[in-house]
Amino acid sequence: MSYSVTILNTDWRFEVSEGETVLQAALRQEIPVPWGCGGGVCGVCMGQIVSGEMVYPDGEPLALFEEDADAGKGLFCVGLPASDLVLDVPEMGADWEPWEEE
Ligand code: FES
Asked: Is residue 21 part of a domain?
């Protein structure tokens, strides 16, 4: 069973295969999602789960504090989709251009 992931306010849409984390699937398909440790520790990959459900087979990740989880945030490096997902990753939005030269 695979699920589709859509990144809000972008044209990015990709499939996540069975047993794959959202980050693994994104990187496999060359989707430029932000990430750091890849192990649920740094919090760099955190984004908002706008719709759908994500699960953590290895338990709640260290970098996901209760208030973040309660606010609907998720860590995509260790999260597996349990449904189709719509995610908000502000760094991938059209208005976010950190590398723009002056
Ligand atoms: S990449 Fe570090 S917590 Fe996800």
From this structure: yes
Identify the pLDDT of residue 98.
62
| Interval 11-51: pLDDT, tens | 999 999 999 999 999 999 999 999 999 999 999 999 999 99
Answer whether residue 97 is part of any domain: no
**How many domains in the chain?**
1
- Which of 45, 68, 73 to probe ligand 1 with, by most ligand atoms within 8 A of CB? 45
Residue 99 placed within a domain: no
What pTM, to 2 d.p., does this model score?
0.90
Long-range contacts of 3-6 (CB under 8 A, 24+ apart): 3/52, 3/81, 3/82, 3/83, 3/84, 3/85, 4/84, 4/85, 5/81, 5/84, 5/85, 5/86, 5/87, 6/84, 6/85, 6/86, 6/87
The CB of 36 under 6 Å from ligand 1? The reply is yes
